[in-house]
Specification:
The complex is a heterodimer of chains A (487) and B (383). With 487 residues, chain A is α/β, with parallel strands linked by helices. Chain A has helices spanning 25-31, 119-133, 164-175, 191-195, 268-277, 294-303, 352-358, 407-414, 421-428, 440-452, 473-477, and strands spanning 9-12, 15-18, 38-39, 46-47, 58-61, 64-68, 79-81, 87-88, 91-92, 151-160, 180-183, 208-210, 213-219, 224-229, 237-246, 251-252, 265-267, 286-290, 308-313, 317-321, 328-331, 334-337, 340-344, 347-348, 374-376, 398-400, 405-406. Chain A contains 11 helices and 27 strands. The longest helix of chain A has 15 residues, at 119-133. Chain B has 2 domains: 7-49 and 154-223 and 314-364, FAD/NAD(P)-binding domain; 89-148 and 225-311, D-Amino Acid Oxidase, subunit A, domain 2 (D-Amino Acid Oxidase, Chain A, domain 2), CATH 3.30.9. Chain B is 28% helix and 26% strand. Chain B is built from 8 helices and 18 strands. Chain B is globular, with a radius of gyration of 20 Å. The termini of chain B are far apart. Classes of the chains: A alpha/beta (487), B alpha/beta (383).
Chain lengths: 487, 383
């Protein structure tokens, strides 16, 4: 070996990009100055990984569509290409859609606007729509599909969430001599806390750790919990837990302002993941907003070598400017030049698993008290912080980036008298994409409440469902026969 | 919301695709004073949770004649409703994996062709052409119905609602019928708490709640409510062109115009009334997808949900006036109800509005189990 080793590279839309050991694909791309990872479905807006939504982090990786760039390691030779562009990756003529008035695309192609109504012309239009809407090509022919045999694990106690609270809870159960499994999405437990510079308790080695794994489904009042490795190829797990602890923490909600999903906007989790774990510089000038944690976050980002040009309350943000990435923000009429915005609040807990375990209903699944075996701990128990909706909301604010649903589109239905969240969901497809309603239904309910003079909690949530893209067909097929039908 | 009226020409219980189709047809015929009452929310029942598949051909002539009418009606809905229901005749393939079902399909094809449906058994080259991604090792025979296809439910329900509202049909969702009044043996009014609506006729299109509606009127109807489950995969570009039923694997699915593969399967379970989902259906459906379309292996599952329906003893719809309770009509017992709604709405509107009982409706009479017997239909994907 010579002293100078060749730096490994990946391919991005045909171009070669150098990667650093330990990079995720998202980290490698951002480090190299790539700021558009994906394009939105209808208007082909530029999207990148923001942390709040997965849609900006999806690309074709080695031919496999819809792969999460933030969850996939950047191995030398990996070929990554952008989806949802025509005629090809890297050059997207359809971005011209952005010059169309947004109103024209309210409801989307699939809701009947702009479509011939019957016969052959509709069939042709439908075919084009299918091509445009199905954002990714399918896996290459010859993909040798085999079911990945699932695992069946009976455990006294299942802890979901690997933050400091989850670790402490798991350690306590292990110390009591009971069997305990801990499921965490991260490569290591307590990733966010570590990236934030906090002390992390050491995980008791007796805890059965399932890392890089997402628990996505709760069934039969908690008799069964399903989880699957995030890579899509590891064995899915059927947990049969005696007790379940939800230590799933909270996430920061994106601000409901113009430009809220421009590349360069990160939630605290994603921003710190890039800046601390991967040593990537988020941008030249960083603004930090929040509901109290922004000061600590700004200090941490400064420690990590960032220039922080603004620190302030999330509710004070008026708009985010920029075309392909953040260029400036407006706060109380003042324009602040920056290329990155990191938000640390309002914080809210992901309701999905709790809803699945508790909700029941004949006409509609309605949230209820958790089954007795299920407990929430830590930040997941804290009251959800209100999402600020400006008195004169900007119609361009994106509520659901997966389905390209704007605040204006929601208001068009709310102002026409439609105040039922389930119906708003069906009319706009808000929350029906990659993220399956989290966090966009919280934003939607905040908009609805603000517009109708009600409280968000006055409105029943749309149904949260499994498995919200946390399991592949090959993984799920490996569960066939593991669980007896309920007879 | 507008206040509930005191009287109605027809009270329709259930504002899903069945109830709205009947309301639309009655209104189109000129009936006024139609009231639709639904305990849930718009699109909240099976009408907003189904597979959206539509085909004309089955194995029995009774089903086939009813569904030929429904396809003919579907073709007219966009124009009549004034809203695009996005019905697309992209074809419907019934796939057989076993000799017995292949023989059944051959026989059904001959019957369907006699009735004028463009059904045919595909030759080997045609299967590869139409379904390039299917695992040929699993396929014994494919019956293809060119006139079949899909219509997204949100579009159909939106068109129906807009038409009904425009024509003065009173739609009341999240409103629960608590009683049905009987006068001299005839159903004569409905109660919503302490509010009474005098009704010329009552049509129950209440899906899994139809047995309860019959009981409110002091009569019984065949069948019981149960849940079934379906799921949607993450969107990809077109892989599967026609709608597909796997007659032996008991699965049905299609790829929507926005790229999701949507479908469901049947796992023998204790019938339950719930909107909760369970593990076996997801696992079984994934196993079937993987075997039939191996390319779906790495595709992620977005959403898995449940809906409820009213299963009759022979899984055939129950259409018509209740023999023991004049004035109380049913469009019930549906398992292919989304597809069948345009026909059912037309036939029931003709029966209620004009007193004409169409020959295509007669085999599905509520008292068939005591008279002509159950309808034997081997071409449906149910068990």
């Amino acid at each position: 070996m010579s002293a100078t080793s060749v730096q490994p590279t990946i391919r991005w839309n045909g171009k070669s990009i150098a990667v650093t050991e330990g990079d995720s694909l998202a980290a490698a791309l951002w480090r190299a100055g790539v700021t558009t990872f994906a394009r939105s479905r209808k208007l082909h807006r530029p999207l990148a990984w923001t942390g709040a939504h997965a849609v900006g982090a999806l690309a074709a990786v080695n031919g496999l569509p819809n792969t999460r760039l933030d969850q996939t390691p950047a191995r030398a030779g990996t070929v990554v290409s952008m989806q949802n562009c025509w005629p090809g990756p890297g050059f997207d003529l359809l971005r011209l859609m952005q010059i169309l008035p947004e109103r024209l695309l309210y409801g989307g192609f699939e809701h009947g606007h702009l479509m011939p109504s019957s016969g052959l012309s509709y069939r042709l239009a439908e075919r084009m729509m299918a091509y445009l809407a199905g954002v990714a090509d399918t896996a290459p022919t010859g993909w040798e599909g085999a079911a990945i045999p699932g695992r069946d694990i009976t455990v006294d106690h299942l802890i979901i969430g690997g933050g400091p609270e989850g670790i402490r809870a798991a350690n306590a159960v292990a110390a009591a001599g009971l069997s305990v499994a801990l499921v965490t999405r991260g490569r290591t437990p307590a990733r966010f806390a570590r990236n934030a510079g906090q002390e992390i308790p050491v995980l008791d080695p007796r805890v059965d750790l399932h890392k890089e794994t997402e628990a996505f489904g709760g069934y039969r009042d908690g008799d069964l919990v399903l989880a699957a490795p995030v890579n899509g190829t590891g064995a899915a797990v059927v947990f049969r837990p005696g007790q379940i602890t939800l230590a799933t923490g909270r996430r920061s909600m994106p601000p409901v302002v113009r430009g809220n999903h421009l590349p360069g906007v990160f939630d605290a989790h994603a921003g710190l993941n890039l800046a601390a774990e991967h040593g990537v510089r988020l941008g030249r000038r960083v603004a930090v907003i929040g509901t109290g944690d922004e000061v600590a976050l700004a200090a941490r980002l400064r420690d990590l070598g960032h220039e922080v040009v603004h620190t302030g309350p999330a509710a004070g943000l008026d708009r985010i400017e920029g075309r392909a990435r953040v260029r400036a923000i407006r706060v109380a009429g003042r324009r602040i030049l920056c290329d990155t915005l990191v938000h640390a609040g309002p914080w809210r807990a992901d309701p999905n698993l709790g809803f699945q375990l508790a909700a029941e209903g004949h006409y509609q699944l309605l949230d209820a008290a958790l089954p007795v075996r299920v407990t929430r701990i830590g930040a997941a128990t804290l009251a959800p912080e209100p999402i600020h909706i400006p008195a004169q909301p900007d119609k361009s604010a994106l509520i659901c980036p997966c389905m390209d649903v704007t605040l204006g589109e929601l208001l068009s239905h709310i102002d026409a008298g439609e105040h039922d969240p389930e119906i708003l969901k069906r009319l706009t497809s808000c929350g029906m994409g990659t993220c399956q309603g989290w966090p966009c239904w919280d934003s939607m309910l905040a908009v609805l409440a603000a517009r109708t003079g009600t409280r968000p909690e006055d409105h029943a949530r749309p149904s949260h469902r499994p498995p919200r893209r946390a399991i592949t067909i090959a993984q799920a097929a490996g569960l066939a026969g593991l669980v007896e039908p309920d007879k | 919301m507008t206040p509930l009226p005191r009287s109605a020409s027809t009270v329709i219980i259930g504002g899903g695709v069945q109830g709205l189709s009947a309301a639309f047809n009655l209104a189109e015929m000129g009936q006024t004073g139609i009231v639709v009452i639904d305990a849930g929310y718009w699109q909240g029942g099976a009408s907003g949770r189904n597979g959206t598949l539509i085909r004309p051909g089955f194995a029995s002539t009774a089903w086939t004649e009813l569904f030929m009418l429904t396809v003919a009606e579907w073709k007219t809905w966009s124009k009549r409703l004034g809203e695009n229901v996005m019905f697309t005749q992209r074809g419907y393939s019934v796939v057989s994996e076993k000799a017995a079902s292949a023989a059944m399909l051959e026989e059904a094809t001959a019957m369907q062709r006699d009735l004028g449906i463009r059904s045919r058994m595909l030759k080997s080259a045609e299967i590869s052409d139409l379904l390039p991604a299917i695992n040929r090792k699993r396929v014994l025979a494919v019956q293809h119905q060119e006139e079949g296809g899909v219509a997204p439910h949100h579009a159909a329900l939106k068109g129906l609602r807009a038409y009904c509202e425009h024509r003065g049909v009173a739609l009341h969702y999240r409103t629960k019928i608590t009683g049905i009044e009987v006068t001299d043996g005839r159903a004569s009014a409905v109660w919503i708490g302490d509010h009474r609506i005098d009704a010329g006729n009552i049509l129950s299109c209440a899906g899994p709640d139809n047995p309860d509606m019959a009981r409110l009127a002091g009569v019984e109807i065949d069948g019981f409510g149960m849940k079934i489950e379906a799921m949607a995969l993450e969107p990809t570009r077109p892989l599967i062109k026609p709608a597909i039923a796997l007659i032996d694997s008991l699965a049905y699915f299609h790829q929507t115009s926005r790229g999701e593969v949507v479908g469901g399967t049947e796992v023998p379970e204790r019938p339950r009334m719930s909107l909760r989902v369970d593990v076996p259906v997801m696992a079984e459906m994934a196993r079937i997808y993987l075997e039939m379309f191996p390319q779906l292996g790495p595709v992620r599952i977005l959403r898995h949900w449940a809906g409820q329906l009213h299963a009759s003893t022979d899984y055939a719809p129950l259409l018509g006036e209740h023999p023991a309770r004049p004035g109380l009509w049913f469009s019930a017992g549906w398992s292919y109800g989304f597809a069948g709604a345009p026909a059912a709405g037309r036939l029931l509107a003709g029966a209620i509005g004009k007193g004409h009982i169409d020959s295509r409706m007669k085999p599905f009479a509520l008292d068939r189990f005591q008279t002509t017997g159950p309808i034997i239909e081997k071409g449906i994907v149910l068990a």
